[in-house]
Amino acid sequence: MKQIIVSLFILVAVFIAPITGKADIPMPCSSVLEPINSGFPNAKGAALVYKVKLTPSFPRTHISIHVTHLPSPSSFGDYDGFEGFAYIQNEISWRFKLYPTPEEDGPTWAGRIDIITADLTNSHIQVRLSNSKTGKLGPAVLTSSIHSCK
């Protein structure tokens, strides 16, 4: 009888625990955004992710991005800026404008979004090129997975 109970316990632990034991992303956390193209070794960014309670309703997830040493957006083609882009593959995405600061040797780009209600467990965060006149979103320049968030 004891062997049956022990065997049942082991089966429950093996098959049910992984379903209910889904790992949450620790918040607040930050993730380094790395360049996709190795031709830009100095281009780096950071994403800060945490919960905010800005209204009486439930908390939302905040993502802010800070990026330095990017080439001019126009050097990639018909683009005039960068946007933050967070997505969960085949589910949902969010995009938000990154604003340049006037600095010597190129601007620092930064922006944020505070309205995310989805679980970000399988999400990715990117910096993408954008054209503000056409609304066209271009390819990613920097990227990170939420799993690298610490």
Describe this structure in words.
- The chain is mainly beta.
- It has a single domain (25-148), classed as Immunoglobulin-like (Sandwich).
- Helices cover 12% and strands 45% of the residues.
- It contains two helices and eight strands; from the N terminus they run ααββββββββ.
- It has helices spanning 2-15, 17-20, and strands at residues 29-35, 44-52, 60-68, 81-88, 92-100, 109-116, 123-130, 137-145.
- The chain has an eight-stranded antiparallel β-barrel with strand order 1-2-3-6-5-4-7-8.
- The longest helix is centred in the N-terminal third of the chain and has 14 residues, at 2-15.
- Helix and strand content put the structural class at mainly beta
Shape: globular
* Fold-level CATH name: Immunoglobulin-like
- Give, in order, the helices and strands: HHEEEEEEEE
Strand content: 35-45%
Radius of gyration: 20 Å
Quickly count the domains.
Answer: 1
Low-pLDDT regions: 4-23
Please summarize the sheet with the most strands.
8 strands, antiparallel, barrel
CATH architecture verdict: Sandwich
Number of strands: 8
Estimate percent helicity.
10-25%
User: What order do the strands of the largest sheet run in, or round the barrel if closed?
Assistant: 1-2-3-6-5-4-7-8
CATH top level is Mainly Beta
| Mean pLDDT level | 85
Total of DSSP H or I helical runs spanning 4+ residues = 2
First-to-last CA distance: 46 Å
Attribute tags:
single chain, 150 residues, mainly beta, Immunoglobulin-like, eight-stranded antiparallel β-barrel, 2 helices, 8 strands
